[in-house]
Design goal:
alpha+beta; 6-stranded mixed β-sheet; 14% strand; globular
């Protein structure tokens, strides 16, 4: 039976091979990856929440330690410079024993400013990869985030090793437990704030541990795509609940959305229909297929739903031609998922970084790349009743195509989004979210 311990060596071997190729192509000797450093709040004495450089956590599950460094030449065992200060003000995370450590030559750094003593003296052939440009310049790096190197690394990040896939299954498992607890809290009549606390407690995440700010939206707040306000008071009536929330496991994100109706009503019927539509879109994830084409097909399917439920007075083809579907679905079908919620490489045609444009009619698509095996995607179609977009549509020449009476009945419910996390295999799709029995 495969475990993280048994899968990790092959993961490191794969990253070493990628590093070797990238260094040769870019005529470099060493990649130096900086985990990052704390950033102080302006005019204050505490820091913003620390977020690790995704290039760093690609190599090892160290996700919360600043001032660490990785030195990689593709031939030798990578060197990890691990920051373990002597500090009585803060909790110091000491380096214990774990499955990944034998794959690194580990050096302990007790003072962040002493790192230059452990870095290569001659940095001419070294490339700094990280966010802190001034630090890199002060240390003498001339090659800082070289475009060719990053393009190669980002392109190949889309292919997830078996180790990474296992981490993402664990991330989904954690998020699903939170989603089930949040649904119970909604049905109990809790506030948005209370539901968020239930989710965090169940997943054992702090608010800064989640891969993105959770969207916990009751009633009309579900129409705000990135709603994060978290009202403390309980609404007068519970009508609908949209939860877009993920989890982290060893630096790998899950990104799951569910929508619920408090009663069995027309909105619950609409949710069930959108769930069916979402699973149809999942079936369209096939190696060699175009994600753009899948988005366009799903966009048209949403036009069918709008017609079926009487929100528009025209067929799907007319709705596509006029663009009125975009009033109800103003975002793309989904995105790559991995070390970042919106993982890199989604617009690349090749490892040189050639950009693949999205259609002008669908500018909000987050990936235009051909679907391949071992890639991980979200599929997240939505249908919303957004005040600003509805106002714009009402003022347009296509206003008569919309059944405003039926639309007005749905405004208090906000909208629907349903999102699963999918690993594309050569022979089948693995729906990590549905495999965990999240309805």
């Amino acid at each position: 039976m495969s475990t993280l311990t048994t899968l990790y060596p092959a993961h490191i071997d794969e990253l070493q091979q990628r590093a070797t190729t990238a260094l040769t192509r870019e005529n470099l000797d060493t990649i130096v990856i900086h985990s990052g450093q704390d950033i102080k709040v302006f005019l204050d004495d505490h820091n913003y929440p620390f977020k690790t450089n995704p290039h760093f956590k690609h190599w090892l599950p160290v996700v919360d330690i600043p001032n660490c460094w990785l030195l990689i030449n593709g031939r030798d065992k990578p060197t990890l410079i691990y920051y373990q200060p002597i500090d009585f003000w803060h909790k110091v995370i000491e380096l214990g024993q774990d499955y990944w450590q034998e794959h690194f030559d580990i050096k302990i750094l007790t003072k962040a400013t002493d790192v230059d003593k452990l870095l290569p003296y001659d940095k001419k052939g070294c490339a700094y990869v990280g966010a802190h440009i001034e630090v890199a310049k002060a240390l003498g790096f001339e090659q800082i985030n070289p475009e060719g190197l990053l393009n190669y690394l980002h392109y190949h990040r889309a292919y997830k090793t078996p180790y990474e896939q296992m981490c993402m299954r664990e991330s989904n498992k954690c998020a699903v437990t939170g989603h089930k607890a949040a649904k119970e809290a909604f049905l109990e009549g809790c506030s948005e704030f209370e539901i968020q606390q239930r989710y965090l407690y169940t997943t054992q995440h702090g608010e800064n541990d989640t891969p993105y700010g959770n969207i916990v939206a009751l009633n009309e707040n579900a129409s705000i795509l990135h709603y994060t306000a978290l009202e403390r008071s309980v609404p007068q009536a519970h009508r609908s609940f949209l939860l877009d929330a993920g989890a982290n496991f060893h630096g790998y994100a899950s990104d799951i959305t569910r929508t619920y109706s408090f009663k069995r009503d027309k909105f619950s019927e609409l949710i069930a229909r959108m769930d069916q539509l979402m699973l149809t879109a999942v079936d369209g994830l096939k190696p060699g297929a175009s994600y753009v084409d899948l988005h366009i097909a799903t966009y048209r399917d949403i036009g069918n739903v709008l017609n079926e439920f009487g929100f528009i007075n025209v067929d799907a083809d007319t709705a596509v031609e006029t663009g009125i579907i975009s009033t109800f679905i103003p975002h793309g079908l989904g995105h790559h998922l991995g070390l970042q919620t919106h993982d890199v490489g989604g617009f690349m045609a090749d490892e040189r970084g050639t950009h693949v444009n999205t259609p002008k009619e669908h500018p909000f698509l987050r990936t235009s790349r051909i679907i391949e095996a071992n890639q991980v995607f979200t599929i997240e179609p939505g249908l919303y009743f957004i005040d600003s977009l509805l106002t714009k549509a009402k003022q347009s020449k296509h206003s008569g195509m919309i059944n405003w009476k039926n639309v007005e009945q749905m405004r208090p419910f906000g909208g629907i989004r349903i999102e699963d996390n999918i690993i594309v295999h050569q022979s089948h799709n693995e729906n990590m979210t549905r495999d965990l029995d999240l309805k």
